[in-house]
Amino acid sequence: MHFNELDTPAVIVDLDIMERNMQRLAAYCREHSVALRPHTKTHKIPELAKLQIQYGACGITVAKVSEARVMRDAGIDDILIAYPIVAQHKARELAHLAANTKITVSLDSLEAAQSISLSAAERAVRVGILVEVDVGLHRCGVGSAEDAVALARKILIQPNLDFRGIMFYPGHMMAPVARQRELLTPVNQFMDEVYAAFARAGIPIQVVSGGSTPTAFLSAEFHGLTEIRPGMYPFYDRNMVGAEVVPVESCALSVVVTVVSTAVSGRVILDGGSKTFSSDRFLAGHGRGFGMVVQDPAAEFEAMSEEHGHLSVAASKRAYRLGERLQIIPNHVCTTINMHERIYGVRGGQVEVSWPVAGHGKLQ
Amino acid sequence: MHFNELDTPAVIVDLDIMERNMQRLAAYCREHSVALRPHTKTHKIPELAKLQIQYGACGITVAKVSEARVMRDAGIDDILIAYPIVAQHKARELAHLAANTKITVSLDSLEAAQSISLSAAERAVRVGILVEVDVGLHRCGVGSAEDAVALARKILIQPNLDFRGIMFYPGHMMAPVARQRELLTPVNQFMDEVYAAFARAGIPIQVVSGGSTPTAFLSAEFHGLTEIRPGMYPFYDRNMVGAEVVPVESCALSVVVTVVSTAVSGRVILDGGSKTFSSDRFLAGHGRGFGMVVQDPAAEFEAMSEEHGHLSVAASKRAYRLGERLQIIPNHVCTTINMHERIYGVRGGQVEVSWPVAGHGKLQ
Q: pTM of the prediction?
């Protein structure tokens, strides 16, 4: 079946581009001896996680315990939950998963460590721990080398926890490469302090987990990095193009939509809005628009209702007709896939495979 | 079970407030002889749709054919699909539903009418049609009384279609009541032209479907209105409070979240972000923030990642501790419920009922 026969809106992935994207980063990681642990919150699809492992990933990253369960149930046995687990019933579920899976969790508080330790001891399992440090995003993570060492010391004496190392997320570095290099200097200075403090304290660090899709090909320039957790790199999106991370030709994912109204002059209405694309904004330049129309770069995806996409075609030279299909590259691929129950893999225009988004709606 | 024992993030609905909201609008509609046809895209939950009908609604509205199927399968037999159905396979599905359900569709093009007519004729069913007119939002809808009459004439001669009347959506009127009254004048002038043109053409209009939650209690002042399609009125949200539609005490729905990190000074991190709340913006005043913290109006919900909510607590007098629960009233209730597989009904703090969001992910 050609993808234009799918009922719309439908998310399609160009398999040739996706496989190239996966291979390219896997090759970079091999070359630079950095482990690749993809963040599967981007797609929440076990089949794609397994493909990433097949291409050389050492395991996966997830954001939530419920996502970890979906991936574990599909047979993936090395999972980092890059999220502070504070509530006791999440810790119990975590310990349950750790019975037959290598589970590692990042955290920035003693309370989280104690909660996990308690549940792990109850079930007689071990859980790996990374101490999260804040390298500039100011979201989670302890803010100094001393605090990181102090927390690691406390983790070392908690029952059933294995302190494995350090985690950070350089989420403030989404920018063109030249600007990334400027932002990297203080990150490296901070991490050097962390390494020195751990060395002084005599606490060995096995893992330094960092990285993200925008900074993935800069990984070799991060001091001491042993693994990265990029999510978006199989697909990329309009934000990654806007930040000059990749050219538009690297975007593997688009949303197929149908023109459902042309009644209002200068506008074309599509059958996908915020419930199809998410409302995530364009993070680069002028900040406008909710996606890029593959067939007409002059069209501006200027507004959305829940189920309507509003194209301004005032500047377009193209004629639009009711019922025709368009492809839109979304601003943010992670939140777009998350809106869908199923996505489709396409090669040469033909639908080759469809994957349920098994982790769709898994929020706990 | 108390709602604070639910795993978080969890959407809870205060049943007392919700029932009061439902009753209040139903009473207004009875008093003013306007039919109430709630838009169930807000919750996508058949049990709540049936409760709305029990309180006096004449039937329901949905946005997509797939939502109509969910509601029809749950036994609801009078459904308006307030969305232009253009693709032939959606028209076939529609005709299938019309075999044992009263189905009405709004549209603004002959192409949509022809597509539905063809499928309806194939299955020997009848589908009701409303012509959508544009009263100011400039999204869908024909722009003049003459165009509306011309389209109605063409619908009247299409096999298996029943022209029932006119639909409009006053989505540009979300504002405090005084401003709504100013915006209403041109809407009424336009609709008077429409009514006059249909009268001159000798085409009877049975249904004039308008309304929305922000304008619901102004319905009696819309000329010629026979039914309204409000969605959010059982719950309301921060945007409805911001537009002075209701006081915050009328908000029935909140998201229970857990504090998962306090490591960064001046910030508190919650276990819900854009995948829990959606990224929908605050549409009133300063436009900032992603929700209102029930326990601390001085906290600003200033940013979100996919799974992290970022509270700025710089102006707060409250101490926050790891693991504690907070309730957040979201900006937009429709897109928030849509992120969840299940929501919970609470009375006096106790969870009384839980509903699967049966239409969750239904986008086609």
A: 0.97
